[in-house]
Amino acid sequence: MRDFQESFSVAAMCRVMSVSSTGYYEWLSRPESKRSQEDRALKAEIIAIHEKSRRTYGERRIKDDLADKDKNVSRQRINRLMKEAKLVCKTKRKFKATTDARHNKPVADNLLERDFHRDQPNQAYVGDITYIQTREGWLYLSVFIDLCSRAVVGWSMSNRMTATLVTDSLEMAMWKRRPKADLLVHSDRGSQYVSERYQSLLNDNDFVCSMSRKGNCWDNAVAESFFHTLKTELVHHEDFQTREEDQQAIFEYIEVFYPSFST
What is the model's pLDDT at position 263? Predict the structure, then answer.
Protein backbone atom coordinates (compact mmCIF):
# COMPACT_ATOMS: atom_id res chain seq x y z
CA MET A 1 0.00 0.00 0.00
CA ARG A 2 2.84 2.38 0.91
CA ASP A 3 4.61 1.63 -2.43
CA PHE A 4 1.37 2.42 -4.27
CA GLN A 5 0.96 5.72 -2.42
CA GLU A 6 4.58 6.67 -3.12
CA SER A 7 4.22 5.82 -6.83
CA PHE A 8 0.98 7.79 -7.00
CA SER A 9 2.63 10.84 -5.35
CA VAL A 10 5.61 10.69 -7.71
CA ALA A 11 3.31 10.40 -10.73
CA ALA A 12 1.26 13.39 -9.57
CA MET A 13 4.39 15.43 -8.97
CA CYS A 14 5.79 14.56 -12.38
CA ARG A 15 2.56 15.70 -14.05
CA VAL A 16 2.81 19.04 -12.26
CA MET A 17 6.47 19.40 -13.27
CA SER A 18 5.76 18.17 -16.83
CA VAL A 19 8.42 15.47 -16.64
CA SER A 20 8.21 11.71 -17.06
CA SER A 21 8.40 9.33 -14.13
CA THR A 22 11.34 7.61 -15.82
CA GLY A 23 13.20 10.91 -16.09
CA TYR A 24 12.51 11.69 -12.44
CA TYR A 25 13.93 8.36 -11.23
CA GLU A 26 16.96 8.79 -13.50
CA TRP A 27 17.53 12.18 -11.92
CA LEU A 28 17.31 10.67 -8.43
CA SER A 29 19.87 7.98 -9.28
CA ARG A 30 22.26 10.41 -10.97
CA PRO A 31 25.55 10.73 -9.02
CA GLU A 32 26.27 14.04 -7.27
CA SER A 33 28.10 16.48 -9.55
CA LYS A 34 31.67 17.54 -8.82
CA ARG A 35 30.47 21.12 -8.27
CA SER A 36 27.91 19.96 -5.70
CA GLN A 37 30.55 17.92 -3.90
CA GLU A 38 32.87 20.94 -3.81
CA ASP A 39 30.05 23.17 -2.55
CA ARG A 40 29.23 20.72 0.22
CA ALA A 41 32.87 20.58 1.39
CA LEU A 42 33.30 24.34 1.04
CA LYS A 43 30.11 25.03 2.99
CA ALA A 44 31.41 22.93 5.89
CA GLU A 45 34.65 24.90 5.87
CA ILE A 46 32.80 28.22 5.76
CA ILE A 47 30.67 27.16 8.72
CA ALA A 48 33.82 26.27 10.66
CA ILE A 49 35.45 29.64 9.90
CA HIS A 50 32.26 31.49 10.81
CA GLU A 51 31.99 29.68 14.14
CA LYS A 52 35.68 30.21 14.92
CA SER A 53 35.20 33.95 14.35
CA ARG A 54 32.36 33.88 16.90
CA ARG A 55 29.84 34.36 14.09
CA THR A 56 31.32 37.74 13.10
CA TYR A 57 32.95 37.03 9.71
CA GLY A 58 31.11 37.94 6.50
CA GLU A 59 31.99 36.84 3.00
CA ARG A 60 34.91 39.29 2.65
CA ARG A 61 36.81 38.07 5.70
CA ILE A 62 35.93 34.44 5.01
CA LYS A 63 37.30 34.91 1.50
CA ASP A 64 40.55 36.27 2.98
CA ASP A 65 40.75 33.34 5.39
CA LEU A 66 40.25 30.84 2.57
CA ALA A 67 42.85 32.68 0.46
CA ASP A 68 45.36 32.16 3.28
CA LYS A 69 44.78 28.44 2.68
CA ASP A 70 45.39 28.88 -1.08
CA LYS A 71 41.68 28.59 -1.87
CA ASN A 72 40.47 31.27 -4.28
CA VAL A 73 36.69 31.46 -3.84
CA SER A 74 34.51 34.33 -5.06
CA ARG A 75 32.54 36.40 -2.58
CA GLN A 76 29.36 35.62 -4.54
CA ARG A 77 29.83 31.89 -4.03
CA ILE A 78 30.65 32.35 -0.36
CA ASN A 79 27.58 34.55 0.08
CA ARG A 80 25.37 31.91 -1.59
CA LEU A 81 26.69 29.11 0.59
CA MET A 82 26.35 31.25 3.72
CA LYS A 83 22.69 31.87 2.86
CA GLU A 84 22.14 28.15 2.30
CA ALA A 85 23.71 27.45 5.70
CA LYS A 86 21.67 30.31 7.26
CA LEU A 87 24.81 31.99 8.62
CA VAL A 88 24.18 35.49 9.94
CA CYS A 89 26.88 37.90 11.11
CA LYS A 90 26.61 39.92 14.26
CA THR A 91 25.49 43.47 13.61
CA LYS A 92 27.76 46.51 13.76
CA ARG A 93 27.41 49.61 15.89
CA LYS A 94 28.90 53.06 15.61
CA PHE A 95 32.17 53.92 17.29
CA LYS A 96 32.46 56.94 19.57
CA ALA A 97 35.76 58.78 20.16
CA THR A 98 36.87 59.26 23.74
CA THR A 99 40.07 61.34 23.91
CA ASP A 100 39.91 65.05 24.70
CA ALA A 101 42.18 67.33 22.65
CA ARG A 102 40.98 70.53 24.32
CA HIS A 103 44.25 71.60 25.93
CA ASN A 104 47.02 74.13 25.40
CA LYS A 105 49.96 71.75 25.56
CA PRO A 106 52.30 71.34 22.57
CA VAL A 107 51.51 68.55 20.12
CA ALA A 108 53.68 66.58 17.71
CA ASP A 109 53.49 66.66 13.92
CA ASN A 110 51.81 63.85 12.02
CA LEU A 111 54.98 61.99 11.04
CA LEU A 112 53.11 58.76 10.29
CA GLU A 113 51.15 60.46 7.47
CA ARG A 114 48.75 57.50 7.16
CA ASP A 115 51.54 55.13 6.15
CA PHE A 116 50.14 52.12 7.99
CA HIS A 117 52.53 49.50 6.57
CA ARG A 118 55.90 48.40 7.90
CA ASP A 119 58.12 45.57 6.67
CA GLN A 120 59.68 44.82 10.04
CA PRO A 121 58.28 44.66 13.59
CA ASN A 122 58.97 47.38 16.16
CA GLN A 123 59.33 50.15 13.60
CA ALA A 124 56.02 51.92 14.31
CA TYR A 125 53.26 51.58 16.91
CA VAL A 126 49.85 53.25 16.93
CA GLY A 127 47.94 53.83 20.16
CA ASP A 128 44.43 54.81 21.14
CA ILE A 129 41.84 54.64 23.95
CA THR A 130 38.27 53.39 23.93
CA TYR A 131 35.56 52.81 26.53
CA ILE A 132 33.37 49.84 27.42
CA GLN A 133 30.20 50.11 29.48
CA THR A 134 29.50 47.80 32.42
CA ARG A 135 26.80 47.77 35.10
CA GLU A 136 29.44 49.14 37.49
CA GLY A 137 30.40 52.03 35.19
CA TRP A 138 32.88 52.73 32.39
CA LEU A 139 36.00 50.69 31.75
CA TYR A 140 38.70 52.34 29.62
CA LEU A 141 41.06 50.38 27.38
CA SER A 142 44.36 51.66 25.97
CA VAL A 143 46.24 49.70 23.31
CA PHE A 144 49.35 49.93 21.18
CA ILE A 145 49.45 48.06 17.86
CA ASP A 146 52.51 47.13 15.81
CA LEU A 147 51.94 48.22 12.21
CA CYS A 148 53.96 45.29 10.84
CA SER A 149 51.84 42.47 12.28
CA ARG A 150 48.77 44.51 13.36
CA ALA A 151 49.09 42.68 16.67
CA VAL A 152 48.22 44.37 19.96
CA VAL A 153 51.63 44.54 21.63
CA GLY A 154 50.61 46.51 24.70
CA TRP A 155 47.35 47.18 26.54
CA SER A 156 45.97 48.33 29.88
CA MET A 157 42.54 48.86 31.45
CA SER A 158 41.27 51.18 34.15
CA ASN A 159 38.13 52.83 35.44
CA ARG A 160 39.82 56.20 34.82
CA MET A 161 41.12 57.67 31.56
CA THR A 162 44.48 59.00 32.75
CA ALA A 163 48.07 59.32 31.56
CA THR A 164 48.87 56.20 33.58
CA LEU A 165 46.48 54.25 31.38
CA VAL A 166 48.49 54.96 28.23
CA THR A 167 51.94 54.73 29.81
CA ASP A 168 51.08 51.33 31.30
CA SER A 169 50.06 50.01 27.89
CA LEU A 170 53.19 51.37 26.21
CA GLU A 171 55.40 49.96 28.98
CA MET A 172 53.81 46.54 28.42
CA ALA A 173 54.72 46.79 24.72
CA MET A 174 58.28 47.77 25.66
CA TRP A 175 58.55 44.84 28.08
CA LYS A 176 57.21 42.35 25.53
CA ARG A 177 58.98 43.64 22.41
CA ARG A 178 62.09 45.51 23.57
CA PRO A 179 61.86 48.11 20.76
CA LYS A 180 64.95 50.14 19.94
CA ALA A 181 65.41 53.89 19.73
CA ASP A 182 63.70 55.75 16.86
CA LEU A 183 60.52 53.70 17.25
CA LEU A 184 57.71 55.83 15.81
CA VAL A 185 54.80 56.00 18.28
CA HIS A 186 51.62 57.53 16.85
CA SER A 187 48.45 58.58 18.69
CA ASP A 188 45.81 61.28 18.63
CA ARG A 189 46.18 64.62 20.46
CA GLY A 190 44.37 63.55 23.61
CA SER A 191 45.45 64.97 26.93
CA GLN A 192 46.87 61.60 28.01
CA TYR A 193 49.35 61.62 25.10
CA VAL A 194 50.59 65.17 25.70
CA SER A 195 51.00 64.57 29.44
CA GLU A 196 54.42 64.96 31.00
CA ARG A 197 54.46 61.33 32.10
CA TYR A 198 53.79 59.93 28.62
CA GLN A 199 56.14 62.34 26.86
CA SER A 200 58.90 61.57 29.35
CA LEU A 201 58.54 57.87 28.62
CA LEU A 202 59.00 58.56 24.90
CA ASN A 203 61.96 60.90 25.44
CA ASP A 204 63.73 58.63 27.91
CA ASN A 205 63.71 55.81 25.34
CA ASP A 206 64.45 58.00 22.29
CA PHE A 207 61.13 57.15 20.69
CA VAL A 208 59.70 59.46 18.02
CA CYS A 209 56.30 60.98 18.80
CA SER A 210 53.70 61.41 16.06
CA MET A 211 50.14 62.70 16.45
CA SER A 212 47.05 62.84 14.27
CA ARG A 213 45.81 66.12 12.93
CA LYS A 214 43.09 67.75 14.99
CA GLY A 215 39.73 66.04 14.62
CA ASN A 216 40.98 63.60 11.96
CA CYS A 217 40.30 59.99 13.00
CA TRP A 218 41.56 58.63 9.67
CA ASP A 219 45.11 59.56 10.69
CA ASN A 220 44.89 56.73 13.23
CA ALA A 221 42.75 54.35 11.20
CA VAL A 222 44.44 51.11 12.30
CA ALA A 223 43.71 51.68 15.98
CA GLU A 224 40.19 52.87 15.19
CA SER A 225 39.64 49.74 13.10
CA PHE A 226 40.78 47.47 15.93
CA PHE A 227 38.36 49.05 18.38
CA HIS A 228 35.55 48.80 15.84
CA THR A 229 36.29 45.09 15.41
CA LEU A 230 36.54 44.54 19.17
CA LYS A 231 33.16 46.13 19.77
CA THR A 232 31.51 44.40 16.83
CA GLU A 233 32.81 40.95 17.72
CA LEU A 234 32.60 41.11 21.49
CA VAL A 235 31.50 44.17 23.43
CA HIS A 236 28.17 44.99 21.77
CA HIS A 237 26.93 41.45 22.33
CA GLU A 238 27.66 41.27 26.04
CA ASP A 239 26.06 42.74 29.15
CA PHE A 240 28.98 43.03 31.53
CA GLN A 241 27.87 43.11 35.16
CA THR A 242 31.22 44.18 36.59
CA ARG A 243 34.46 45.73 35.37
CA GLU A 244 36.28 42.55 36.40
CA GLU A 245 34.03 40.49 34.13
CA ASP A 246 34.68 42.94 31.30
CA GLN A 247 38.44 42.86 31.89
CA GLN A 248 38.51 39.06 31.71
CA ALA A 249 36.63 39.07 28.39
CA ILE A 250 38.87 41.78 26.92
CA PHE A 251 41.99 39.90 28.08
CA GLU A 252 40.81 36.70 26.40
CA TYR A 253 39.95 38.56 23.20
CA ILE A 254 43.29 40.37 22.90
CA GLU A 255 45.61 37.59 24.04
CA VAL A 256 43.81 34.49 22.75
CA PHE A 257 41.24 35.22 20.06
CA TYR A 258 42.53 38.28 18.18
CA PRO A 259 46.15 37.11 17.58
CA SER A 260 44.86 34.11 15.60
CA PHE A 261 43.19 36.45 13.12
CA SER A 262 45.60 39.41 13.00
CA THR A 263 47.91 39.66 10.01
Answer: 43
For the cut 80, the answer to whether the pLDDT of residue 76 exceeds it is yes
CA distances from 64 to 96, 170, 234, 261 (A): 28, 30, 21, 10
The model's confidence at residue 15, banded by pLDDT at 50, 70 and 90, is low
pLDDT of 52 reads 78
Q: Do 196 and 237 have their domain in common?
A: yes
176 Cβ neighbours under 8 A, 6+ residues apart: 153, 154
pLDDT in tens, 210-224: 999 987 888 999 999
Domain tally, the chain: 3
Domain that holds residue 216: 124-260
- The residue among 60, 138, 93, 88 whose CA lies nearest residue 228 is 93
The residue that leads in pLDDT, 4 or 3, is 3
* C-alpha–C-alpha distance, residues 46 and 40, integer Å: 10
Pair (53, 12) in one structural domain: no
* 26, 131, 216 from 97: Cα distances, Å: 63, 9, 11
Please give the model's pTM, rounded to 2 decimal places. 0.63
